[in-house]
Amino acid sequence: MAAAGSLAGWPGEALAQEPAAPVQAQPAPVKDVTRKLARFIVAAKPGDVPAPVRKEATRTLLNWLGVAVGASRHTTVDRAIAAVAPFAGPAQASVLGRAERFDIQTVTLINAISSHVFDFDDTHLKTIIHASGPVISPSLALAEYLPISGQDFLCALVMGIETAFRVGNAVYPNHYDVGWHITGTAGVIGAAAAAGKLLGLTEQQMVWALGLAASQPVGLRESFGSMNKSFNPGRAGQNGLLAALLAARDFTSSDGMLEAKRGWANTVSTKQDYAQITEGLGQVWETRLNTYKPFACGIVIHPIIDACIQLRNEYKIDPEQVRAINLKVHPLVLELTGKKTPREGLEGKFSVYHAAAVAVIFGKAGERQFSDGAVRDPKVVALRDKVTAVVDPAVKEAQADVTIVLADGRELHKFIPQAVGSVENPMSDAALEAKTRDLVQGILPEAQSRRLIESCWKVEALPRAGELATIASLAPQAAKAHAQKK
Amino acid sequence: MAAAGSLAGWPGEALAQEPAAPVQAQPAPVKDVTRKLARFIVAAKPGDVPAPVRKEATRTLLNWLGVAVGASRHTTVDRAIAAVAPFAGPAQASVLGRAERFDIQTVTLINAISSHVFDFDDTHLKTIIHASGPVISPSLALAEYLPISGQDFLCALVMGIETAFRVGNAVYPNHYDVGWHITGTAGVIGAAAAAGKLLGLTEQQMVWALGLAASQPVGLRESFGSMNKSFNPGRAGQNGLLAALLAARDFTSSDGMLEAKRGWANTVSTKQDYAQITEGLGQVWETRLNTYKPFACGIVIHPIIDACIQLRNEYKIDPEQVRAINLKVHPLVLELTGKKTPREGLEGKFSVYHAAAVAVIFGKAGERQFSDGAVRDPKVVALRDKVTAVVDPAVKEAQADVTIVLADGRELHKFIPQAVGSVENPMSDAALEAKTRDLVQGILPEAQSRRLIESCWKVEALPRAGELATIASLAPQAAKAHAQKK
């Protein structure tokens, strides 16, 4: 990944409570990889996690609650619930943004699907992993089912996110390039780490949980643009939860499932860099590198949207006066979002042409700009047809080079070295809050939305973390009253 | 796979109702692979399946019922049930061999786990796929939940098995060689085919079901020798069922998940032979090539056991008079079953040394010969230490070359060109029945065992196929009475 150069170091050294061990350039010997990771996860205490890491995990949680609640009435979620509800178990946990309650496995599936529907969740830019769906969804379901403090909950989230990112680093980019939706294939292992942590697994049980999770990677990139894409983090979260539940009952796996000859990394990738998993555990934190999308679409087109919005605002561009929008882009942009003529909202998210058009017309690229209506809006269609995109090897993945040609012949140019929402140029807490508020608006009652955001920021002070799920969902009566009032 | 040469043709041509189209040697164009397969599955009627194919599927069903019931009290099953029971849904289907009833998703997991615990299930020798766990388990659960005739049930099993074998053929051996447990990675697609057929999916829904299943391959070979191995067909069956349930609610996937650039075959294998999926559908039947194990362990050591038993019986060998047992074997034998010193029964199945020893001592290699007791039996340990195995490139996978050296200096030699249980030398119906009877003995009451075998042979005459599950499990009261009587 071209842009990873700037992120590939270990910027977390400043966060170390102990001086960080120098990180080796060469891979560690292939031994005890799964066990070392398991040992770290099992031993971790909330106080071991540096404050900035806990803060980042809290931001990840806030963003996740927003996207999961925000998409909860989407057809994708409706259909998933219709498919599994007849087989669901006891009401142990809450579907966010709705009034249904099911067993924790079913709720894990639904909430993680919901949180990925808008393509608006968090991103680890080094690997394009969206960890929160697989990791937070089973954790929150467990936190409703068991008495788990906010502190322990957040610690488990960090363990899960850290695990997903580290195993992802070990196999990226080859693993992703061949076709895996890495969110579901690395995320499942993170899910087992978080769920296993909350279940209090022993080291040996955690080894098995990681192994059972490694047996269940989910997701192929061919699914992008269909509901199947959101299913991938959903099932990954559920698979990780099941792995941890089985391990808790001493259901065994092999001891070296991540690193063995016929284990995970060798089977799912032609690259295996095990040092990324085992080096610097507890000293350098990949979790710190999580980012949040200001725009409701794939991260690869954010720099272009950023550029278009900036040009629009700086020059007060009238869309009708635009003759051409010329994009120079990283190769992945056309590979992932090259749809010239999207027919519905979801496809719009995979169209850099549509994204550039709405950015210039509306000055934003939120969920509404990727609705069916927006994709079919004649003004959008007209401007979309004026967008051209060419691959430029000089443009890095987090960059964009945009020129807007106006009817009067003026050429407005903007180069984005690092789009907003990146590690170097992160969304502020206030911007994240605003994004969350927008997402939950109209789904949760106003007072409840406020309470959700407040409770999330102070998650570590909650005696029971499961409270977050109660606040983020509707009691059956409240749901009814809310619907009648609208 | 060395032995595949003799099986690689399309021996099913004799079964064709129409003259078979000549099968192309070169791969078909990569287009509409998923759709062609879906179309075939959706259109198939029970009468379209030739009688010998239906007969083979019935034999597969009988063998599967035996192994699933037989292992139902195993610790692996106990632990799996303990892990998932608290989250299970309504009592819609039966755990075979036991009295528990759960929702169909949970039961699918448990029955498929159970059926693989003894490593005694069916095998497609060309790909080493054990299709019945993933395919039959969700089908039988659905057949308890919905009114499904025996005819329709058997037709769905054929569609599922045929699908698993064909997609397996498309990627084997590269896919297996790299580390995938192909039973769970091809089986999941077969499971979706069978479950989708029973749910009456449209062609488009079946395309999605196959795609959602392709997103969820399960199982790494590193798990062999642990409980995780049986989990793989279990979760694969469940994943295929979920894929079909989602598709039935129009939960979308991509249209080309099997063949697309970032789809299943390209992502999970370096070999893609799509003609194996699309050519000769309805005319040549891979299902005919399913085989059943006479011995309760991995298929690769069957020729050796066969040779040892034959030598033992021919020469009335006294184990104490054995000085050495020298094996010449195919490379996979040592790769898969090279454990010199197994410590428990399960590990014994992955020890060619143990297998040869029990074959000479007991003249059989059933489940009892792979118990913890057998593995620790001093007589077995003593003889095991006299077994040597060397790889011989001249020995094919279905073959074995065994020499037993006696204390008096005699060297007894046996070459097995094709072990019993192979396609060319299949188990007879009577032998299959005897195997099933042995397996269910002590688990089901005697009269019920007889009824199960009878009902299975006449499955196509059953008004409701789900009846098989009732007969193969215990009513809560019956379970109690049976336990008290023992």
Describe the overall structure.
The structure is a homodimer of 486-residue chains. Chain A is of the alpha+beta class and 486 residues long. Chain A has two domains: 2-291, 2-methylcitrate dehydratase PrpD; 299-416, 2-Layer Sandwich (60s Ribosomal Protein L30, Chain: A), CATH 3.30.1330. The first copy, chain A, has 23 helices and eight strands. In chain A, the strands form three sheets. In chain A, strands 6-5-7-8 form a four-stranded mixed beta sheet. In chain A, strands 1-2 form a two-stranded antiparallel ribbon. In chain A, helix 4 (104-117) runs antiparallel to helix 11 (228-248), helix 10 runs antiparallel to helix 11 (228-248) and helix 14 runs parallel beside helix 17 (352-362). The radius of gyration of chain A is 22 Å and the shape is globular. Mean pLDDT of chain A is 92; it is low at 1-24. Chains A and B meet through helix 3, helix 4, helix 10, helix 11 and helix 12 of A and helix 3, helix 4, helix 10, helix 11 and helix 12 of B.
What keyword list fits this structure?
50% helix, homodimer, alpha+beta, 60s Ribosomal Protein L30, Chain: A, 486 residues, 2 domains, 23 helices, 4-stranded mixed β-sheet, disordered N terminus, two-stranded antiparallel sheet, 2-methylcitrate dehydratase PrpD
